[in-house]
Design goal:
disordered N terminus, magnesium, three-stranded mixed beta sheet, 5 helices, transferase, three-stranded antiparallel beta sheet, metal-binding
Length: about 220
């Protein structure tokens, strides 16, 4: 079945039927940023094969707990991949840690992450305070132009002028828009944060079980 995607870019969403029921493919036309993003993820995957493995597990987990549908107010698959990438950039990752250990660290990292106070910048490889103080040259940059996808567009050097208009902020490294702008309600953010807490506790909490993927998938 072919349906137009709700994304403002000219996307076509293909929902497959048997024997591939449950799978879907999105075809994007004339979107240079999406092409650049695909190349970026491809090359990160070639640098470290734990990255695609972690993305796959996180994607399946997000689907199971119901926080993977951007059209329902949650995060797109691309936003989840950016979260994994940011974790590998800024988490306390040891080069020899296996993917399973990284998964536990991933849940622990985001269960502690304050999305209301902090923004994620993939381009800088860091966390940026979501301040609106114009005296802060890192967290504040004047708005350059309007953008339909996220409401506002940042100057090439910095983040949006007021990231507080969003419930969470993950900077797309190419468009510089908010890749998590689909999270519009506090209830949606709380569900995402709650899912991180539950996943973390299933591995390292006081009632943690044996560290198996079946505990979360």
């Amino acid at each position: 079945m072919l349906t137009p995607s709700e994304n403002t870019a000219p996307n076509l969403k293909i929902e497959l039927e048997k024997p591939f029921a449950g799978l879907c493919v999105e075809i994007c036309c004339n979107n240079i940023d999406a092409l650049r993003s695909a190349h970026m993820l491809h090359y990160y995957s070639r640098v470290d094969d734990r990255f695609p493995a972690l993305c796959l597990i996180v994607s399946e987990w997000a689907k199971k707990v119901g926080i993977d549908d951007a059209n329902m107010g949650f995060l797109s698959s691309y936003a989840w991949e950016l979260l994994v990438l940011h974790f590998l950039q800024c988490g306390r990752v040891i080069n020899k840690d296996p993917a399973g250990e990284l998964l536990i660290q991933f849940f622990d990292y985001y269960s502690r992450f304050d999305f209301s106070e902090n923004a994620i910048s993939i381009k800088r490889g860091t966390v940026v305070k979501r301040a609106t103080d114009k005296e802060d040259p890192v967290s504040w940059k004047p708005v350059q132009q309007r953008d339909r996808r996220a409401g506002l567009h940042a100057q090439r050097a910095g983040l949006l002028e007021d990231t507080q208009i969003f419930k969470m902020f993950i900077e797309d490294p190419f468009s510089e828009c908010n890749a998590s702008a689909t999270v519009k309600q506090m209830s949606e953010l709380l569900k995402i944060q709650g899912a991180f807490d539950i996943a973390r506790d299933s591995f390292v909490g006081p009632h943690a079980r044996e560290p198996l993927l079946s505990n979360i998938l």
